[in-house]
Design goal:
Layout: E1 2-3, E2 13-14, E3 18-23, E4 26-31, H1 34-48, H2 54-63, H3 68-75, H4 79-87, H5 94-108, H6 112-129, E5 136-139, E6 142-145
Antiparallel strand pairs: 1-2, 3-4, 5-6
Helix pairs in contact: 1-2, 1-5, 2-5, 3-4, 5-6
């Protein structure tokens, strides 16, 4: 079995679906359809875990593509509080666990309005707080940082 720690969870093992490939830098794993795998992992966490541990909470937040600040804004807390939940310094309140569980289940389901709302919230977060994403493009003169 393959111990799949790359997702940020320490208790995930894959029976199959993993190809170990050799690269010039050593062995690497390749997983087909990783998005579907993450949906299944997330749904399992949401439906089968009575309480969320810090890494499971972080996994669900990241699968929603939300920042700590955005989750904090949704539940009325500071980003620092969310960071403390994810580090395990402070327990995640049950009410927040309920919110992220329901939000995640709706997001991975066929609820298009909610999916659009989550994407809109994430877009607003980038507009308000800035985007640290850097893009590069290859030109006739070589690679350059995108000016946009």
């Amino acid at each position: 079995m393959y111990h799949y720690t790359e997702c940020g969870l320490i208790n995930i093992y894959l029976k199959n679906g993993v190809e170990i490939i050799e690269t010039p830098y050593g062995s690497a794993s390749h997983i087909e359809n990783i998005e579907e795998l993450h949906k299944v992992i997330g749904a399992d966490i949401v439906c089968n875990k009575p309480t969320l541990n810090p890494s499971e909470f972080r996994f669900l937040r990241k699968e929603l593509n939300m920042t700590q600040k955005t989750i904090g804004d949704i539940v009325g807390k500071e980003a620092q509080t969310v960071a403390k939940w994810e580090k395990g310094d402070v327990p995640v309140p049950k009410s927040v666990c309920v919110i992220i569980r329901k939000l995640y289940l709706e997001y991975i389901g066929d609820n298009k309005p909610l999916q659009e709302l989550v994407e809109h919230i994430n877009h607003l977060d980038i507009l308000i707080n800035g985007d640290e994403t850097r893009t590069f493009e290859e030109t006739e003169d070589g690679w350059k940082a995108d000016a946009a």
